[in-house]
Amino acid sequence: MIDALCFQKHVIRVKFGVEKSPLFDSTNVIINSDLKSLSTNINSILLNSNQKIKNDIVEFIKNQYGIPENNPSKILDSILSKNISKNY
What is the pLDDT of residues 15-28, one digit of tens each? Predict the structure, then answer.
């Protein structure tokens, strides 16, 4: 689910019971479905390309996992410089 969200794809979580997931049940970026409503939820995603959901996904991933990193080029430079100094 996290991989799909990182690529800003819709996620449907099929629930077979009443199990709870505090992380995924408390957000609107993952569609919780049972088998009876699965086809309805799939059709809803296919017919609606809602930009707000994509924005919510970006915010969710940033808040929960810090992706994407702030200043990624600075982080990459730091990693590369450490690796170069180790090799010399």
Answer: 888 888 877 777 88
Global pTM value:
0.63
Which residue stretches of the chain have pLDDT < 50?
A: none
Cα(34)–Cα(54) distance, integer angstroms: 23
Compute CA distances 37 → 22, 24, 68, 78, whole Å. 22, 18, 33, 48
Residues 6+ apart with CB under 8 A from 53: 10, 28, 29
Range of the domain at 14: 2-87
| Domain count along the chain | 1
Q: Specify the long-range contacts of residues 75-79, CB closer than 8 Å, at least 24 apart.
A: none
Q: Which pair of tokens denotes residue 88?
A: 């010399």
